[in-house]
Amino acid sequence: MHERESSPGANSMIDLVFRNRTRERAFGPLFFKRVLSVAVLRSGLGRGRIEISITLLGPTQMRTMNKRYRGVDAPTDVLSFPLNAYRMSGLAGSETKRYNEIALGDIFICPSFALKNARRDGFSPREALAWCTVHGFLHLAGYDHERSSRARRSMDVLEEKILSALTYGSTSHHLRD
Fold it and tell me: What is the helix (H) or strand (E) element at residue 109, kind and residue range?
């Protein structure tokens, strides 16, 4: 299933390309669009049009991708592939002014893996998939928690801000691998 959705936000537009390659149908493009809309606004990226792709994968497909791109032979909850290697602070600059559109990149989520971790840690399926979406979005925007403890704190604070706005509260520290 492949769907393309656009939604207006406060001064921004999210163009979401959504693909579901799993049998899980509880969460569709509208759920992910809502999460991304809040993430865009709370992160300060709410200018211009933003394009993001989200693909839901099964554990075998996610394991293959994780091994190929990260060298880890195991499934994971979320992988992100940014199209541009710049931080959010640079996104409001010349790219947005020139084209009024930012293609951030691709997020791959493995719902079964994320939901297994959520059950273990006492979080709802919505909380788990919202965290995966926010976490992936922040990686697309240039945040990298693996770079340093300072970078991790910075990403955690922004994750928390976004998830709190979604009323999911403090899931960011608990759902990470």
Answer: strand 101-109
Rounded CA gap, 133 and 135, in Å? Answer: 5
Report the C-alpha gap between 117 and 140 in whole angstroms: 23
Beta bridge partners of residue 101, listed in sequence order: 49
- What confidence tens digit (pLDDT) does each residue in 13-37 have? 899 999 999 998 889 999 999 999 9
20, 34, 89, 103, 137 from 168: Cα distances, Å: 23, 13, 26, 27, 17
124: domain CATH number is 3.40.390.30
Q: In 11-102, which residue ranges form alpha helices assigned H by DSSP?
A: 29-42, 59-70, 88-91, 94-99
Report the predicted TM-score, pTM, of the whole model to 2 decimal places.
0.82
| Structural domain span for residue 40 | 2-175
Residue 138 has pLDDT above 60, yes or no: yes
Give the number of domains in the chain.
Answer: 1
